[in-house]
Amino acid sequence: MIPVGVLTGFLGSGKTTLLGRLLKSPDFGRTAVIINEFGEVGLDHDLIEASDESFVELQTGCLCCTIRGDLVLTLADILRRRDDGAVAPFERVVIETSGLADPAPILHALMSDDLLAARLAVAGVVTTVDAVNGAETLGRQPESVKQVAVADRLVLTKTDLVGAPPNALIARLAALNPSAPVLSATFGAIDPAHLFDAGVWDAPGKTPNLPAWLADVPHHHDTIHDPNRHDGRIACFALIRDRPIPAVALTLFLEVLAEHCGADLLRLKGIVDIAESPERPAVIHGVQHVFHPPAFLARWPSPDRRSRLVFIVREIPRAFVETLLAAIEAEVHDAAQPA
Amino acid sequence: MTADPITAVHDLLVASLRAWRVDGSVTRAANGTLELTARGAVLRVSRASLPFRWMVSIGERSRGVTSVAGLLRTVRRVVDPDHQPNRLRIAPAPLVPP
């Protein structure tokens, strides 16, 4: 499987600078880059200097809107060219989105296409945030809020201009997405090893990497809302269950979430103690109404055997999610009783 | 402790109206029947015998549903008819590589 990272961030937040530096790093060789630019004439790809082992493809239009199919075709094309020896045998793919893109439909495309799913694996979403203008952008541009909310890693850029990252911005990022570590890049310089390593598995060893995947999730019972009125529609919270969840209850729960919440379920990831599989927990991950098949781990990765579900949502009250799971659990429990 | 199904569904319907941003209320009668009032409609929700689990009544019409999922779908069609439901899609991409 070839890991695919999504690099996003609002206009001018330093995506291209970051990517340019990454591609010069020996640790980031053999990378295929797909740059999406919004507009008839793209410029960013001209600003990227790739090594001999890497190459850059350009797409125009908005990836998250009408040309999502084009992304699938582009990825299929570079895989074919790799197989044919027409391009370097790249070991990873990075998709740099336009500054206005919503990353969620891009994840859909990566998860949903049969051909791509057999060869590519999502390695995480990295979102750049301008340390100078980031707070203002988050206040004015809903696209930037969503880009931050769905990120696995947040990278503060232009920190050389402000010295220490502004506390207010750090607080905003933590409120919007407490599970994403915040890294800093100065002039685009950052250790590549810390960026696209956000998959649930450890790529080299193909072993579960759950502690990192679920790092710093809000394991308390409070919903975290951004207090800023512009961002208040997005929230992050965790549901924790001490008792096992019957498999059918989990299925019904996900079905109802998809049916009623759809596009507002920005991301859901978690580890679940399935009643029928006490020794092998299930890992789940979904973006809006699209979910990976649950992955059953060989064993629990830690002594903590509670089910932990992390939600990043837009205008879905925590109470709805909690009462939904409780009602389904009650019904499944009731149905199992003798008549 | 697992909540009794009527209490759990009552709480769910209250939370659902808020989630759907529909003004309304849910009350529980002594016999356990739930009455949901929203946007001029009155729905009564009660336990049903198999093969159904819930009966939803609107005026003289009654409809049986087999799960909480079906119950929510039926209620939302009445109180939030503009909602466009999504279907859960399981992607072919595995979460953990084979």
Would you mind describing this structure in some detail?
- The complex is a heterodimer of chains A (339) and B (98).
- By secondary structure, chain A is an alpha/beta fold.
- Chain A is built from 12 helices and 16 strands.
- Chain A has helices spanning 15-24, 44-47, 68-84, 103-112, 114-119, 134-140, 142-149, 159-162, 167-176, 210-213, 247-261, 318-335; strands spanning 2-9, 31-37, 55-60, 92-96, 120-130, 153-157, 182-184, 201-202, 207-208, 224-225, 234-241, 265-272, 282-287, 290-291, 295-296, 307-314.
- Helices cover 28% and strands 30% of the residues of chain B.
- In chain B, a hairpin with a 5-residue loop joins strand 1 (24-28) and strand 2 (34-38).
- The interface between A and B is large, with 57 and 38 residues.
The unreliable regions of chain B are: none
Helix and strand content put the structural class of chain B at alpha+beta
| Element order of chain B: H for helix, E for strand | HEEEEEHE
Q: Helix segment count of chain B? A: 2
Q: Portion of residues in helices of chain A?
A: 25-40%
Number of helical stretches of at least 4 residues of chain A: 12
| Terminal CA distance of chain A | 49 Å
Radius of gyration of chain B: 16 Å
User: Whole-number average pLDDT of chain A?
Assistant: 80
Q: Uncertain runs of chain A with pLDDT below 50, 5 residues or more?
A: 39-43, 216-230
What is the residue-averaged pLDDT of chain B?
A: 90
Biggest interface, chains and residue tallies: A-B, 57 and 38 residues
Strand order in space, largest sheet of chain A: 3-2-4-1-5-6-7
Radius of gyration of chain A: 20 Å
Summarize the helix and strand pattern of chain A as letters.
Answer: EHEHEHEHHEHHEHHEEEHEEHEEEEEH
